[in-house]
Amino acid sequence: MQSAVALLLLLLTTLVAAQEYALNAGDTLRVHVFGEPELTFDELLVGQNGRISYPFLGVLAVSGKSVSEVEEELRSGLSPDYLVDPRVSVSIVEYRPFFVNGEVKKPGAVAFQPGLTLRKAVSLAGGFTERANKKRAMVISDSDPELAETERGLDYAVQPGDIITVDDTFF
Fold first, then answer.
1. Would the N or C end of the chain have less CB density within 10 A of its end CB?
2. Start-end ranges of CATH 3.30.1950.10 in the chain?
3. Nearest-CA neighbor of 126 among 109, 111, 108, 105?
């Protein structure tokens, strides 16, 4: 029984880690090192090269890493040469935007929020125009290495960096 519970906990931990958000250019981080105001930053922008600059550690590649991986990298980089057992906290202040164009009332960049569906994204872009296809849209996902345009339903989970095109309908 104990081994079954342990296995279940291991699987859940792995699942959560796999679903953790991957940082990329345009994300803004907050870094807090307890008791060290000179190492605490309210806004640290991930540059177009996927890197941040941090005191003592220089330039760090964070693109593709989770917040917890960046926390660990900062913690291990600061310890033991600079701080003894540093307590580091990293959070996302602002996610990189996604883009909505085509048959919406306010096309352009939209600030990402976790849990957004395509339906909500269109709403944030002012809603559909009268000519819009209200059942589906085309999406180019930042996470697709081939950047292929894919047809998606309105329940699709929007990701930062997505490019959403709402087509018009002929009827």
1. C
2. 20-94
3. 105
pLDDT per residue over 17-65, tens digit each? 335 889 999 999 999 999 999 999 999 999 999 999 999 999 999 999 9
**The token pair that represents 16 in the structure block:** 């959560």
* Rounded Cα gap, residues 95 and 166, in angstroms: 22
pLDDT digits (tens, 9 = 90+) for 140-165: 987 776 778 899 999 999 999 999 99
98-166 maps to CATH 3.30.460.80: no
Dihedrals phi, psi of 104, to nearest 5 degrees: -125, 160
The fold of the 20-94 domain, in CATH, is wza like fold (3.30.1950)
- Report yes or no: 161 and 24 within 8 Å, Cβ to Cβ: yes
